[in-house]
Structure formats: structure tokens, C-alpha cells
Amino acid sequence: MVEALAALAHEHRLAAYRILVKAGPGGVAAGAIAEQLGLAPSSLTFHIQTLLRAGLITQRRASRHLIYAPEIAAMNELVGFLLHDCCGQGEARAPSCDPGALTQHPETFRTEPRSA
Asked: So where are the chain's domains?
């Protein structure tokens, strides 16, 4: 679990992972990910390898292209781990603690890096 969290603790890896999660099991070609992120292919490879080692994504070859996709079971395990003890799980929860609300309002997630 620590390796997965560490892998996502970098803005380029997190952004690449979000692209893959949005795409779903069909995945995205490496070149398309690099283009969307504005990264050189060698930089993307470095970040993608970290996500692969953490077990968060899969890789397959389609002709001359490498296609990456999210490992859905690993994503669900990670989210489950993070929410396991959310607000006492089973105890009376504070009204502000509603993990399900996150999926209803994804626009509240900050996707841009913090400015200095």
C-alpha cells in the first residue's frame, strides 16, 4: 500500500494515473499520455514504470504501441484502504464525513499543482 501511495505522490504520475482511470480498461497509448501531459517520452517512461512497479497499472502491446490501463482491483483496494476507518466507520459520523459525496462532486478535487 505504501508503494502505491508513494507512486501517486508525484504530480506527473498522478496526472497520468487519472488519465488512465478516466480511459478505463481499454487503456491509452503511451504517446497519447505523453502528449496530454506535455512530457518527453523518456520522462513518461520513468513515471509509468513507477506506476507499473506499484501494481497500479497494466501494460500490453498493440502492434508497435504500448497501451497502459488502470489495474482496477488495485485502485479499489487503495481506495478501500484509505476509507476503511473514515470518521469512525460504524460509530456516529460527523455530518461532514461522507466519502460517497466525493464521487458525486468530483469537480471539488484539485487537479492543478499548488502555486508557490
From this structure: 2-108
Report the pLDDT averaged over residues 39-66.
95
d(Cα 59, Cα 56) in Å, to the nearest integer? Answer: 10
Question: Residue 16 burial (CB < 10 Å; 0-12/13-18/19+)?
Answer: buried
Report, at the CATH architecture level, how domain 2-108 is classified.
Orthogonal Bundle (1.10)
Indicate the helix (H) or strand (E) that contains 68: strand 65-70
Q: Kindly list the distances between the CA atom of residue 114 and the CA atoms of 11, 21, 64, 82, 106, in Å, as whole numbers in the listed order.
A: 10, 22, 37, 22, 18
Beta bridge partners of 1: none
- pTM for this one? 0.76
